[in-house]
Amino acid sequence: MLDTVRQIETPEGVFLRLHSAGALPRAQAWLIDLVIRALVFWAAMIPLGLLGRGGMGIGSLVIFALTWIYGVVCEVWFGGQTLGKRVMSLRVVGADGTPVTLMPSVVRNLLRVVDILPGVYAVGLISTLIDPYARRVGDVVAGTMVVHVSDTPWGLQVPVLKAEPPPAGLSAEEQAAIVEFAERCGQLTPQRQRELADLLIPLTGRGGEDGVRQLVAYANYLLGRT
Question: Is the pTM of this model over 0.90?
Answer without folding.
Answer: no
